[in-house]
Amino acid sequence: MKKMPQFYEDLAEMANSIILLMSPTGVIQYINKYGSEFFGLERDALVGANIIGTIVPETDSSGRKLSRLMKDVCKDPDRHIRNVNENILKSGERVFISWTNKGLADNDGKIYQVLSVGNDITMEKQLEKELTAARDELEIRVKARTLELNQVYEELKSLIHRLAMAEEAQKKRISREIHDQIGQNLSTIGLNFNLLQSVMSEESIVSTKKIINDSIFLLKDTTAKVRNILAELRLPVLDDYGLLAALRWYSHQFTEKTGIQLVVRGNDPHPRPEAHIESTLFLIAREALTNVARHARATVVEIDVHLKDNILFLAVMDNGIGYKRSKSRRKAGQDGMGLLSMSERSTLIGGSCKITSHPGKGTHILVEVPL
Fold first, then answer.
1. Are both 115 and 18 inside the same structural domain?
2. Whether 133 and 201 share a structural domain
């Protein structure tokens, strides 16, 4: 056994870390004052004893064989420069020590001693254990809370679905009543005016012509407004022929009113979506077209409807001026009520709405709804 030079031994005695020298077989050849006091054992009891059974137990609390680890460390310390393992005090208490190991070799390269420096990390390990337990507990609570929120979300979706179906049924009922009652009455009044004109004398026509013409004009205007209200409530073409047909019908009105070319493409999805989904998608498309007419300065708009992998896609694309959508603008809710309305509508039917726009490159709105 080579003795440590006095200068290094003096430094080791001053250190606040465990410093020990052991043979390649694990026999302790030197331990500093701090180390012997830390383990609660006299140096005479440690020097000459094997590290296993004195300051390192045979197995740790998890059942790992520490005797095998120590043999590996002593045999090839350069492969185990750093290791953490349980150690044992005189009292029997288990502590965790972080070891740094270095093999000391002779001129032939043969290891004759192993230098190990250790620091107590028991408190860090305990904190790590507590943090792990707290994290596990938090994960359990988060999972439980997530499950609760998912249940609430599913219940909310079901409620929204029922409300949407009830709203559609109410719209249909009101639309039918307006059509059957007010619409028929307006038609009858119009016929009566025409009949009145045909049976009146020329003298009577001259004196009452302006009144009758004004009344007929008001009647036609009222009839048109009733039709608009009916269209707002529920399009008959949407009920009878579906979303694609309703969009094509609306495209003629849109082009005639704005002068913007509107092209509708796609295929009717099979099976046909529920009425409230069709109605919501039509309202989203109409809202998007309203935005185009007001702000985009576009000349062409395209609408595409198709079903893929049981997901219904509605895309509205224009060749207008576009705009820059910044995160701050979206967070501040400055995208406009129309865009916000489209996103909210898509969410209510279990879908999503993605809006892409760049200055000079138009705007692209994509709605996806799982069926």
1. yes
2. yes
Amino acid (1-letter code) at residue 275:
A
What domain range includes position 364? 240-370
Q: 17 with 37: CB under 8 angstroms?
A: no
Q: Are residues 112 and 139 in the same domain?
A: no
Please indicate, yes or no, whether residues 352 and 244 belong to a single structural domain of this protein: yes
The per-residue pLDDT for 329 is 46
Q: What is the pLDDT of residue 261?
A: 95
Q: Considering the domain boundaries, does residue 233 fall inside one?
A: no
Query: Is the Cβ–Cβ distance between 172 and 165 less than 8 Å?
Result: no
pLDDT of residue 337: 52
Nearest to 77 by CA among 38, 36, 116, 134: 116
CA–CA separation, 45 and 41 (whole Å) = 7
Domain boundary (100, 120, 140) is at: 120
Retrieve residue 316's tokens: 């509205």
Spatial contact of 265 and 303, defined as CB atoms under 8 Å apart: yes
Both 296 and 365 in one domain: the answer is yes
User: E strands of 14-152, at which residues?
Assistant: 18-22, 28-31, 82-88, 94-105, 111-120
Statement to judge: residues 114 and 134 lie in one domain:
no
For 364, counting Cβ atoms within 10 Å of its Cβ (0-12 exposed, 13-18 middle, 19+ buried), the class is middle
Q: pLDDT tens across 200-247, in order?
A: 666 666 667 677 777 778 778 887 777 777 666 667 788 888 999 999
> Which amino acid, residue 336?
G
Q: Of 185, 207, 228, which one is at a domain's C-terminal end?
A: 228
pTM: 0.50
- Give the H or E element holding residue 307: strand 300-308
Residue pointed to by tokens 């009145």 = 196
Between CA 208 and CA 105 the distance in angstroms is 126
What is the number of domains present in the chain? Answer: 3
Question: Which residue in this structure is represented by tokens 């997530």?
Answer: 146
3-state secondary structure of 101: strand
The CATH number that applies at residue 298 is: 3.30.565.10
Cα separation, 323 vs 340, in Å, equals 16
- The CATH number linked to 82 is 3.30.450.20
CA distance 95 to 122: 5
Q: Residue with structure tokens 């004052």?
A: 33
CA quadruple 315, 270, 274, 233: dihedral positive or negative?
Answer: positive
Whether residue 14 is found in the same domain as residue 70? yes
